Structures are given as structure tokens and as C-alpha cells.
Amino acid sequence: MMVDGTEAVEAALTDAFPARRVDELSGVGPSWNDANRTVRVEFADGDAAFLKVAVDGDGSRIATERAVIPYADARCDVAVPTILATGAAGSTPYLVTAPMDGANFHRPWADWSVDEREREIERVGAALAAIHAREFDRHGRIVGGGAGGLTVETDSWTETLVAEIERDRRLASTDRYDRYFDEVVEAVRANADVLDRAPATLVHGDPAMPNVFRTDAATGFIDWEIAHVGDPARELHRVEGRLRDWGDAVGDRLVSAFREGYRRRAGGLPVGREERAPVYDAVRLLGTAGFFDKHVEHVDASPEEAAERFERDMERRLDAVR
């Protein structure tokens, strides 16, 4: 059951910092994830923090993030936020982290030259390779652990991916294209022989620009709540898809730089990634299917035209893996 976000924030602050006075709360930008509420907290003593509350009452995401941040800090050679407090205020789980050193990629990215973007995205490739270097015997969902190791609820990669898809379905803001979730799940299971040969490594889960930070010494990530043991090729596929949104010429340069950074750290790209890419093409488009009502607010087309374009693209991708 969803709870009021403002009340949940106030309750979490009281639980985590009963003796500290808060001067100001502010938003952290738009989010399509209505299951969380995240705010920046300015304390009266001048310190700051970020508070995330799971307003849907589901503590699993907080548990994953609470486990993976110290693990990545100890074992992955990437920058991560410092956890200041975590717990539950009534039925609402929360996590408080300190601000990351350095700068977030999201705001400056559009203003950088292509050369600057190439340099920075190469560093992102190397940072993801450092995360993916943590290998596991089987895929699965991270349910606990810490710096000493992770507790993984193991399964095949096919069923782990299906669970990721079903989680995205639950978070969706519209059920208009719910049928596509069913069809993609069917296609994923039909390709189990291909998918289950994938490597099993730690993956961040959402290495989008707002979640990437850089300092002079390191590149790092925030928002580890959907980290899992998965196929590193899918994570690369997600990043490369976003880079190609910049157009053919620029996208090719950025993808090339991203891969170079990854190869430099990992020694090569994930084995068999091209074989699994068509499946991930279809899975990736569920991000639009589940939030189509929000997607149409940001496209240069009428809702009808956007729907026709999306449906053609989705059917084409499904045809490639059916």
C-alpha cells in the first residue's frame, strides 16, 4: 500500500536523526518511479544528505541497495555514496546517503562537446567493467549482504530477467501496453537456451546519466536499488542504446569510446553479447510501454503518431525474437 510521501519523509527523518534540526527539504528532479520518494535534506549545521523512502512499503529495493553499496565500495574500485542511516519508519523503509563527491553527468552532458563526451563515456565504460569483474556462479536477485559478500537468491538468467520485467510492470504508470509485457516474457522464455549461457556478474541495473558521478580520480554510481547478478551484456546494451539516441554519427563515436573504456578494463566485451542483443532490444522498449503516458509528453509527435511509431517498433523487435 502506498503511503503519503511527505509524511513518510518526515517520519524517516525523525527515526534516523531524532536530535538534528532540518532547515530545508528539496526535490532531486523528475522521476518516473512512483514507488520511491527521494529528497535532498539540508541540516541546520550545514551538512546535507539524500533520503530515499519506499512509499510503497516494499523493503526489498532498500535491502539490495544497503547490501550492494558497501560491497561495491570494498570490491569494485568505483565511487559509491556513503550510507548514513537506514531502517524503517513504521511500515516505510528508508535509506539516507551522503552527497557524492564530484559532479553528476546528467546536467553537463548535453553541454559538453562530442570530444568531452567521448572522454567521459570512456571512463563510464571502464567503471562498469570494474563492477562486472565481480563474477558469480549463478544469476539471481540480491537480497542481502554487505562488504564481505552478497546474498543472492539464485535462478537461471532467463527467470531472473523475467523477474526484472515483472518488477518493471509493477512500477509502470499505465497498463495500456500490458500485453507487450506478456509477449516479451514469452519471447524471453523462448530464448532461454541463448540467454542462460550468459556470464553471471554484478550489474548496477540502471547506469543512466543521472546515476553517474565523476571526480578527478574515479567514476561512480548512485541508486543501486535494482542491482542484481545478471548478464553484463544487457547493461552495455542499455547504455549503448541511450548513446545512439544522439544520432548515427555522434552515437557511433560515443559507443566506440564507451567500448574502448570497457575493453581497457575488462580485456574484451562480454562473450556472446551479439547473440543475446535482439532479446534485449525488445526488453528495453518495455521502459516506454510501461510509461507511455509520460513518454508522449516528451516527444515531438501527437499521441496517436507516437503510439503508431511505438507499436511498429515493438512489433518489429518482437518479430526478431519470436
UniProtKB/TrEMBL annotation:
This is Aminoglycoside phosphotransferase family protein. GO terms for molecular function: transferase activity. Residues 36-267 form the Aminoglycoside phosphotransferase domain. Keywords: Transferase. It comes from the Archaea. Transmembrane segments: none annotated. Pfam families: APH.
